[in-house]
Write a structure and sequence with these properties.
The complex is a heterodimer of chains A (330) and B (378). Helix content of chain A is 33%, strand content 18%. By secondary structure, chain A is an alpha/beta fold. In chain A, helix 3 runs parallel beside helix 4 and helix 8 crosses helix 11. The longest helix of chain A is centred in the first third of the chain and has 14 residues. In chain B, the strands form two sheets. Chain B has a five-stranded parallel β-sheet with strand order 1-2-3-7-6, with helices on both faces. Chain B has a two-stranded antiparallel sheet with strand order 4-5. In chain B, helix 3 runs parallel beside helix 12 and helix 8 runs parallel beside helix 9. Chain B is globular. The model of chain B has no long low-confidence stretch (mean pLDDT 94). The chains are: A alpha/beta (330), B alpha/beta (378). At the A-B interface, helix 3 of A face helix 6 and helix 16 of B. The structure holds thiamine diphosphate (TPP).
Chain lengths: 330, 378
């Protein structure tokens, strides 16, 4: 996926002179994950700029640049190193349009390598989407496929609103079937995609957990379950229509994500579905999420992340018929 | 025309006096302070020189060993301090037992010289837990990864010590890149305003991952920043362990006796890549690294101490042998660390576990049992 993101940034820089990239080590080094590889060489160190090491400074400067007509794309080096910029994000980026009654808009894309599963030491694996989702004024997207990595990043840069662009680190090294000829249509932000059709239950997920859900769906066939898999792609805006339709088809749903379950994205998603689909539900909506602990050390992360087994357990708990005692386990 | 002004009785609380210091007195000397190879080297206690020598030799060996473990995949990552041993050693040796050290992720060597078990210091790099050692046992704060965020902690700890009447000093370490973070400025400012007994040690190793100092700061020297906050800055040759030790020891004693904080910049160089997974050929010229090898802190010290007659062949061999033993012991014990128990995931989130966490604990315990049964049937 790294090379796809690189291509999206390159194309954006080529097409629009207002696009400017900045961040720590994004220039000469090409970013610690090489997402900006070669961009400083091609477009100059003004358009792909190494900054001093200060996240609040990076994002705050991007605000001013955006106020003056540029489209900044900033890279936060790792998920938990975005926190120094939280003040700028919450107090300014998210509410500038609102505060100024629409006079100032901030077309800023904030790229954040996101999530765990890569065996990194502490502070390199957080799932921080909950903080961003809870802040009105921010778009939050998270691609799970190569096509979406390209399409969503282009759409984010083109968006006149600030976008938190979460890049699943686990997928950086996934090999892309990629050629410039195969560049897909740019999907609008805010649409979910059904990745697999099924009838027994709907798995609702995004980003790094999509792969796990697809594996679970393969396994589930052995149990006689046909699982539907829905990839949200965008958490804000949220695609209520596609999600509700999918849940109505199966009557059962499991939300899967790796950020902590308590007060996490799954809670919001389950509540929305309940509000819209209550009469179509055959069982309560379950969540398979990260544990409610600070991100664990790498040698223990497999116990934290949603697994195929945990997903299948949840699906099993949903397969009761009303009136049977099995239902009590829900 | 006369105006009558009513007299109001204004009781002014004790006015806060701005420090009456000449800013020039706060500025560091333009040339980094050196001891080795200068007249200042005379008159230093031989015992101290020998201790520092043994420390840097062992420190180098430690860096080589840990780097090897990382290359073999037995450490998840290791940020080496090869080339920076003088700063690491001096930081630890400038402190008294009642003092505190606040290291970054790179400063495991300083922690070890301070008495922390190297196997425990490497726990986070091994990936079995976030933090291995007891911070209170040797008064070494947890290694900190988010840059500069430990600096305000050092100020707070030092302030608390003063409020409690203790004569504890906190020495806080940060890299050149870390000095760009807001937390650095806030910490230095707090320390100056509160006159907290803190010493800030900036290890200027010229790079923040790939970003060279010139793109990090436009200041002539990072130590020059001190003057704007009203505290003294000192510039020291970071590859001269005796000089770093002397400057830090002075600053520590000044802080201990109510003289307030100091900002020390040690000019050094990172010989190895940022970590074992960094490719430094992308951003720097190998010839620059070679040049700095000529100013290697271990060699510089050995050469000087031989010249001074403090060290002979037998001492050098003895130090090398002891460093080898140290490395062998580290390797051996590192390899025999037990795997972490997954149930510890739930042990330290709260002082009192929430009911939700207890449920999750039960779930993982059941999973482990099921797994164990499955394994035993194989
Ligand atoms: C707040 C924050 N932002 C980014 C990072 C990622 N990061 C880790 S080390 C590093 C470079 C640090 O350079 P410097 O402070 O000079 O210390 P050195 O590594 O040279 O010892 C960066 C950018 C981080 N750890 N914390």
């Amino acid at each position: 996926m790294a090379q796809v993101l690189n291509a999206a940034l390159r194309d954006a820089l080529r097409e629009d002179p207002a696009v400017h990239i900045m961040g720590e080590d994004v220039g000469t080094l090409g970013g610690v994950f090489r997402i900006t590889d070669g961009l400083a060489a091609e477009f100059g160190s003004d358009r792909c700029a190494d900054t001093p090491l200060a996240e609040a400074g990076i994002l705050g400067t991007a605000v001013g640049m955006a106020m003056n007509g540029l489209r900044p794309v900033v890279e936060m080096q790792f998920d938990s190193f975005a926190y120094p910029a939280f003040e700028q994000l919450v107090s300014h980026v998210a509410r500038m349009r609102n505060r100024t009654k629409g006079r100032i808009q901030l077309p800023i894309t904030i790229r954040i390598p996101y999530g765990g599963g890569i065996g990194a030491v502490e502070h390199h694996s957080d799932s921080s989407e909950g903080y961003y989702m809870h802040t009105p004024g921010l778009h939050v997207v998270c691609p799970a496929t190569h096509a979406d990595a390209y399409g969503l990043l282009r759409a984010s840069i083109a968006s006149d609103d600030p976008v938190i662009f979460l890049e699943p680190k686990r997928l950086y090294w996934s090999k892309a079937q990629w050629s410039p000829q195969s560049i897909p249509e740019v999907d609008p932000i805010g649409t979910a995609a059904v990745r697999r059709h099924g009838t027994s239950a709907t798995l609702i997920t995004y980003g790094p957990s999509l792969q796990v859900c697809m594996e679970a769906a393969d396994e589930a066939i052995k149990e006689g379950w046909q699982l539907e898999v829905l990839d949200l792609r965008s958490l804000v805006p949220f695609d209520d229509e596609t999600v509700s339709a999918a849940v109505r088809r199966t009557g059962r749903a499991v939300v899967v994500h790796e950020s902590a379950g308590f007060a996490g994205p799954g809670a919001e998603i389950a509540a929305r579905i309940t509000e819209r689909c209550f009469h179509h539900l055959e069982a309560p909506i379950l969540r398979v999420a990260g544990l409610d602990i600070p991100y664990p050390p790498p040698m223990l992360e497999s116990h934290h992340l949603p697994s195929v087994d945990r997903i299948l357990d949840a699906v099993a708990r949903l397969q009761w018929e009303p009136g049977t005692s099995d239902g009590e386990s829900c | 025309m006369t105006t009558t002004v009513e007299k109001v009785d204004v009781t002014v609380s004790t006015p806060v006096q701005p420090p009456q210091i000449d800013p020039a007195a706060l500025l560091p000397e333009r040339e980094p302070f050196q001891v080795l190879g200068t007249a200042r080297a005379g008159g230093i206690d031989d015992e101290l020189l020998r201790t520092l020598y043994w420390d840097v030799v062992r420190g180098r060996r430690y860096n080589l060993q840990a780097t090897a473990l990382a290359k073999q995949g037995r450490l998840a990552v290791y940020p080496s301090t090869t080339g920076q041993e003088a700063c690491e050693v001096a930081a630890a040796r400038a402190l008294s037992p009642q003092d505190w050290l606040f290291p970054t992720y790179r400063d495991t060597l300083a922690a070890i010289v301070r008495g922390v078990d190297p196997v425990e210091a490497l726990a986070v790099m091994r990936g079995d837990w976030h933090h291995g050692y007891d911070p209170y046992a040797h008064r070494v704060a947890p290694l900190t990864t988010p840059l500069a965020t430990q600096l305000p902690h050092a100020v707070g700890l030092a302030r608390a010590a003063r409020l409690k009447g203790e004569d504890t000093v906190a020495l806080a370490m940060v890299g050149d890149g870390g000095t760009s973070e807001g937390d650095f400025y806030e910490a230095v400012n707090f320390a100056a305003v509160l006159q907290a007994p803190v010493v800030f040690l900036v290890q200027n190793n010229r790079f923040a991952i790939s970003v060279p100092l010139a793109k990090q700061s436009a200041a002539l020297a990072l130590a020059d920043k001190a003057v704007g906050f009203g505290l003294p800055g000192r510039l020291v040759d970071g590859n001269d362990v005796v000089a770093v030790h002397q400057v830090l020891a002075e600053a520590v004693e000044r802080a201990r006796h109510g003289g307030g904080p100091t900002l020390v910049e040690a000019m050094t160089y990172r010989i190895d890549p940022h970590t074992n997974s960094d490719d430094d050929s992308r951003y720097r010229d190998p010839s620059e690294v070679e040049r700095w090898r000529g100013h290697d802190p271990v060699l510089v010290l050995e050469r000087s101490l031989r010249d001074m007659g403090v060290l002979d062949d037998a001492d050098v061999e003895g130090a090398a042998r002891s460093a080898d033993d140290f490395a062998a012991d580290l390797r051996e014990r590192h390899d025999h660390q037990p795997s972490p128990d997954p149930m510890t995931l739930f042990s330290h989130v709260f002082a009192n576990k929430t009911p939700q966490l207890s449920e999750q604990e039960a779930m993982v315990r059941a999973e482990l049992q099921a797994q164990a049964e499955e394994d035993s049937q194989l």
